[in-house]
């Protein structure tokens, strides 16, 4: 990692470490949320975990635009087309803000109906109605914040989102503590307070990110610039972005379906899975940051026509990530029972969580393989292939097989978890063969050769 594989002035490590800090702070936010909410009740934890899966599913609606724009921003900057990169950032912000408003209105209007549709147990519905309406009502902030962070990060400035994450975590933890425990004269509002804390911290983060975004490109963005709309560029965003959106939709909807299956098994299984999500996040944080750094680097290199360097960069990130996530999974295997004990004293929930620790040793390398090479393929525009891969694997293995074996045949939580592992490896191995085939990279190389011959002929 210290070999300084350069992307202009950015090595993989320079791109990845701020992303890691940002993700780590998000992990702390989630872990602290879970820990503090567990002081309210295990039911409150189940509601938060369930609601977050719903929010993740809805995020796919604006991730289509933000992710596609982010990749194109990196490619255009690699090709030194800075004006198009700037325009892409403006277009993405406007479109995702509009989508976020629509989602927020829907979640404010029908939180209970949505929870019932997704099979949440009846006794959890009152808590879900409160949490979904408040946090869901702030989804427009999530949409804008995601787009701002993605645009800024893909310019190569991965530090700014990290600093914002620090501030957001501090505010969120302060407000969580105040509203849950009644510190500093605040009223004790329970889960309602947690929801208010979440929305407030995101609002402040969005304001600061917007200020940074205005100066993120070669020319500052002014108010009149928000009238910008280039149909050709937006078409490019959708061309590369809609498969990414479908890809993410497959993942989040499969996770949402799995949480619904767990709700059918019982609230204890649902709660144990929520706690395990926290432990899994710890394992994968640095690996995920490396995979995200690789995507930015590969996109820049691909845009600069440095295809051989882009090809090698993906493998370098994969090898580093595999070592890291495997070591982290071993650590969690030995201390996982104690970590679960921080969240709950229910022996049944702890036992369910502990039963998944050995399976997590298998899960983490599969996730790293899938994410590192999947991100690399997305970075060079091979998003339709990734979409097809996800549609097949997640629908048949992660979702259908989980339901048949885990619910219908009654094999339970461990079987559902095993299906998730099989899905990660299937997608990862397919992505590996696709990357080794170098299809998109060869097409780019042929295009460069043709352009060179035309230039010689014209000269």
From TrEMBL:
<feature type="transmembrane region" description="Helical">
    <location>
        <begin position="385"/>
        <end position="405"/>
    </location>
</feature>
<feature type="transmembrane region" description="Helical">
    <location>
        <begin position="284"/>
        <end position="302"/>
    </location>
</feature>
<feature type="transmembrane region" description="Helical">
    <location>
        <begin position="54"/>
        <end position="75"/>
    </location>
</feature>
<dbReference type="InterPro" id="IPR002528">
    <property type="entry name" value="MATE_fam"/>
</dbReference>
<keyword id="KW-0472">Membrane</keyword>
<keyword id="KW-0812">Transmembrane</keyword>
<dbReference type="GO" id="GO:0005886">
    <property type="term" value="C:plasma membrane"/>
</dbReference>
<dbReference type="GO" id="GO:0042910">
    <property type="term" value="F:xenobiotic transmembrane transporter activity"/>
</dbReference>
<keyword id="KW-1003">Cell membrane</keyword>
<dbReference type="GO" id="GO:0015297">
    <property type="term" value="F:antiporter activity"/>
</dbReference>
<feature type="transmembrane region" description="Helical">
    <location>
        <begin position="87"/>
        <end position="110"/>
    </location>
</feature>
<feature type="transmembrane region" description="Helical">
    <location>
        <begin position="12"/>
        <end position="32"/>
    </location>
</feature>
<protein>
    <submittedName>
        <fullName>MATE family efflux transporter</fullName>
    </submittedName>
</protein>
<dbReference type="Pfam" id="PF01554">
    <property type="entry name" value="MatE"/>
</dbReference>
<feature type="transmembrane region" description="Helical">
    <location>
        <begin position="194"/>
        <end position="217"/>
    </location>
</feature>
<feature type="transmembrane region" description="Helical">
    <location>
        <begin position="237"/>
        <end position="264"/>
    </location>
</feature>
<keyword id="KW-1133">Transmembrane helix</keyword>
<feature type="transmembrane region" description="Helical">
    <location>
        <begin position="314"/>
        <end position="335"/>
    </location>
</feature>
<keyword id="KW-0813">Transport</keyword>
<feature type="transmembrane region" description="Helical">
    <location>
        <begin position="130"/>
        <end position="148"/>
    </location>
</feature>
<dbReference type="InterPro" id="IPR048279">
    <property type="entry name" value="MdtK-like"/>
</dbReference>
<feature type="transmembrane region" description="Helical">
    <location>
        <begin position="160"/>
        <end position="182"/>
    </location>
</feature>
<dbReference type="InterPro" id="IPR047135">
    <property type="entry name" value="YsiQ"/>
</dbReference>
